[in-house]
Amino acid sequence: MIRSSAEERRRREGLGRAALADLQLAKLNDMLAAILPTNEFYARKLAGASFPLASLDELSSLPLTAKGELALDESDRLGPANLTWTLDRYTRFHQTSGTHGRPLPVFDTDDDWQWWIKCWQYVLDAAEVGSKDRALLAFSFGPFIGFWSAHDALSARGTMTIPGGGMNSLARLDLIERTEATVLLCTPTYAMHLVEVAEEHKINLAHTTIEKIIVAGEPGGSIPAIRRRIEQAWSARVTDHSGASEIGPWGYADHDQRGLHVLESQF
């Protein structure tokens, strides 16, 4: 079950700047207090800083972390440099896509994963996905974190999830028709690829049951021309989302499609 209501999420996102800064500072200090005693990477990196932080302004004095610092040596097969706990505390393993070099492993505890699901609820709120929807995830379901967290977030709000891994595009279009799916989750380019496949096989996507499309992984969902092409072909509303394996699901497009909104109550 979802631990926070849509009303609570709207309240948090509607906080004034001062109240939001107080919330962010408190959560940041709580996190640092929890990890610094056992996280050798950040204990060394932040050794010269004084905690707890008194203001978010102090963030500018802290060193940045580059992804290269977390990269694995060829001899290290377990985890990145910044693990806080021993491996037996972690219940989820994923890795980055490896577009630029060797994939970076990402480990999450159960509490971490519940936080991913919590963040995704804001995205699903923006897309107006409810318990009566049926959501098809056109995703490979390999170790890339992709829509794994979306799958569990959908389940948490009572939405039927339809995994679309291990099948070709025509089979996914058939699955949409057979299940009468109302929500599609995929990358923008894959949404357009499905348009091409549908045209080749004389399938009218505008007549399918898809009403909402959540895209991620590429910038197309926030580019007006691409978003319009997808929406017109599918006769459905597109909601963009952005996240990263290393930090979580940080952004989503609001209803007015004015670009990506940072989930500031969490980031």
In short:
The chain has helices at 6-13, 17-35, 40-45, 67-70, 110-126, 148-156, 169-179, 188-200, 224-234, and strands at 92-95, 105-108, 134-137, 160-163, 183-186, 212-215, 237-244, 248-253, 260-262. The chain is of the alpha/beta class.
- What pattern of helices and strands is seen along the backbone? HHHHEEHEHEHEHEHEEE
Question: What would you report as the Rg, rounded to the nearest angstrom?
Answer: 20 Å
Strand order of the largest sheet: 4-3-5-6-7-8-9
Helix fraction by DSSP (H/I, runs of at least 4): 25-40%
Work out the number of β strands.
Answer: 9
What's the average pLDDT?
A: 92
Major sheet characteristics: 7 strands, mixed
Give an overview in words.
The chain is α/β, with parallel strands linked by helices. The chain is 37% helix and 15% strand. A hairpin with a 3-residue loop joins β7 (237-244) and β8. The longest helix has 19 residues, at 17-35. The model has no long low-confidence stretch (mean pLDDT 92).
Task: List strands and helices in order, with pairings.
Layout: H1 6-13, H2 17-35, H3 40-45, H4 67-70, E1 92-95, E2 105-108, H5 110-126, E3 134-137, H6 148-156, E4 160-163, H7 169-179, E5 183-186, H8 188-200, E6 212-215, H9 224-234, E7 237-244, E8 248-253, E9 260-262
Parallel strand pairs: 3-4, 3-5, 5-6, 6-7
Antiparallel strand pairs: 1-2, 7-8, 8-9
